[in-house]
Specification:
Helices cover 82% and strands 0% of the residues. The chain has helices at residues 3-16, 24-42, 44-55, 59-108, 113-128, 130-141, 147-154, 156-164, 170-191, 204-211, 214-245, 249-259, 263-277, 279-299, 302-316, 319-329, 336-364, 368-386. The chain is globular, with a radius of gyration of 20 Å. The two termini are 30 Å apart. Mean pLDDT is 77; it is low at 1-17.
C-alpha cells in the first residue's frame, strides 16, 4: 500500500479502538444498507407467483430469474476486490446501495421477461459488491474483542428481511425498497463511518496467500453448511410444509415468516457468545444442535413440526457472527475483502443453490422428508470439521 492508504488504515483502526457503544450508530447505518441489500435478493422468492402471473411466465422462465440474479451476484462478488482497491470500501458501499436501488426500480417497471432478466442481473451485479466491503468496514469500526457483537448486529439484516417480505406485495414494494436503498446510500455519504481505506486488489499474490491458509478451506465448507441451514432450508420449507404436512400455502409462508422473528435476538446472542466463549465453541454448538433440529424437521409429525420450524432458525443464525469473525481473523484488514469475496460466492452456490436443488430432486422421487433430514446430517458434519479449525482464541 502507499503512504496514503497506510494512513487511512491507521485512522480506521484508531476509530475501531473506541468503545463498542460509541461505534453503534455508524454500525447500525451499515446494517441498514445490508438490510436493503439482502432484501433486494430475497424479495423475488415470495413475490414470484405474482410476477409469474402478471407477466404470463412459465415456471421455467420464472425460475430462470434466480439464475440471472445468482450469475450477477457471483461475478460481482468475485470482482469486488478490484473495485474497493481503487475507490475504498466506503465508496464501494455507497455505490452498491445506490445501484441496488436503481436496479430494483427497473425491476418494478419491467413488463417483459427480457427486461426482467436484464434488471435482475443488474441487481445481482449491484448487490454483490457490498458484502466484502461491508464486513471489512464493520470489523474496522470496532475492536476485535467486539467483532462477534458487531457482526451479529450486521447479520440482523437478513433476518429482518425474511420477516418483512411476508407482509408486502410486488411492484410497489420493489420500488419502495429501491428508493430506500438510494436514500440510505446518500445518508451514509454524510453520516457513515469506517471503510475509508482501500482493499487489496485480488491479484495472484493475495489470492495465493489466502488459499494457502488451511482454515480458509474449512471455512468455505462451514459457510456452505451455515447457508444450507438458513437460506437453503428457508427456500424449501414452505413447499415442504404444504406438500408433506398439508398446510395451506398462506399458513406455511406465515409460519416460516413469523419463525424468523426470534432470530433477531438469537443472532445477537450468538455474537455475544462468540466474544465470551470463543469462535470455535460457538461453531461446535451451533452445528451440532442445528444439525439435530434439521434432521428432526424431516422426520417429525405435523403435530411437532411447527415447534421445530421455530427452533431450527433460532440456532442456525448463530453461525454467522462466529463464521464472519473466524473469516476476518484469518485475514488482514487489507486482504479481508479478498477472503470474503472468494469464500462467500462458493459457499452461496453450494448452500443456497446446490443443496436446495438436491432436496428438490429427492422430493420429486417422493422422499421430501428424507431430503430435509439428510440436510440435517450434512449440517452436523460441521461439528466434526470445526475441531480442525485453527484459530486464535479471541475472548
Amino acid at each position: 500500500m502507499n503512504n496514503v492508504e497506510t494512513s487511512q488504515v491507521g485512522n480506521d483502526h484508531t476509530a475501531g479502538g473506541g468503545t463498542f457503544r460509541s461505534q453503534l450508530t455508524p454500525l447500525l447505518l451499515v446494517t441498514s444498507i445490508f438490510l436493503l441489500n439482502f432484501t433486494s435478493r430475497l424479495i423475488s422468492a415470495p413475490l414470484l407467483p405474482n410476477i409469474e402471473k402478471e407477466l404470463g411466465l412459465s415456471h421455467g422462465n420464472a425460475g430462470s430469474l434466480f439464475l440471472f440474479l445468482s450469475m450477477g451476484y457471483f461475478i460481482s462478488m468475485l470482482g469486488s476486490g478490484y473495485i474497493s482497491s481503487r475507490i475504498t470500501h466506503r465508496k464501494t458501499i455507497i455505490i452498491s446501495a445506490i445501484a441496488v436501488g436503481a436496479a430494483l426500480s427497473l425491476i418494478s417497471f419491467s413488463r417483459s421477461l427480457f427486461a426482467m432478466r436484464v434488471s435482475i442481473f443488474l441487481l445481482g451485479i449491484s448487490a454483490g459488491t457490498y458484502l466484502p466491503s461491508g464486513v471489512t468496514t464493520v470489523t474496522s469500526l470496532v475492536d476485535s474483542r467486539h467483532w462477534g457483537k458487531a457482526i451479529a448486529i450486521h447479520e440482523l439484516a437478513p433476518n429482518l428481511a425474511e420477516i418483512l417480505l411476508h407482509w408486502f406485495v410486488w411492484r410497489n414494494i420493489l420500488f419502495l425498497v429501491g428508493i430506500g436503498s438510494v436514500i440510505i446510500g446518500i445518508v451514509f455519504v454524510r453520516f457513515g463511518k469506517g471503510g475509508n481505506f482501500s482493499g487489496e486488489t485480488p491479484n495472484f499474490s493475495s489470492i495465493r496467500t489466502i488459499l494457502k491458509i488451511p482454515a480458509f478451506w474449512i471455512l468455505i465448507f462451514l459457510f456452505s453448511l451455515g447457508i444450507t441451514s438458513t437460506i437453503g432450508i428457508y427456500n424449501m420449507l414452505p413447499l415442504y410444509l404444504v406438500t408433506e404436512h398439508g398446510l395451506s400455502r398462506d399458513w406455511a409462508n406465515t409460519l416460516v415468516g413469523i419463525s424468523r422473528i426470534s432470530t433477531l435476538g438469537t443472532a445477537f446472542i450468538g455474537g455475544w457468545a462468540t466474544d465470551r466463549l470463543g469462535v470455535k465453541t460457538v461453531l461446535l454448538t451451533v452445528f451440532f444442535v442445528t444439525g439435530i433440529l434439521t434432521l428432526l424437521l424431516g422426520i417429525a409429525s405435523t403435530r411437532w413440526v411447527a415447534i421445530l420450524v421455530f427452533l431450527q432458525p433460532m440456532l442456525a443464525v448463530c453461525f454467522f457472527p462466529s463464521g464472519f469473525a473466524a473469516l476476518s481473523s484469518i485475514s488482514t484488514p487489507e486482504n479481508r475483502n479478498v477472503a470474503i469475496s472468494l469464500a462467500i460466492p462458493i459457499a452461496f452456490v453450494l448452500g443456497a443453490g446446490v443443496v436446495p436443488t438436491l432436496i428438490g430432486v429427492i422430493a420429486d422421487r417422493g422422499y421430501f422428508s428424507w431430503g430435509i433430514s439428510l440436510s440435517g446430517v450434512m449440517i452436523m458434519t460441521g461439528f466434526f470439521l470445526s475441531f480442525f479449525l485453527k484459530l486464535s482464541d479471541r475472548r
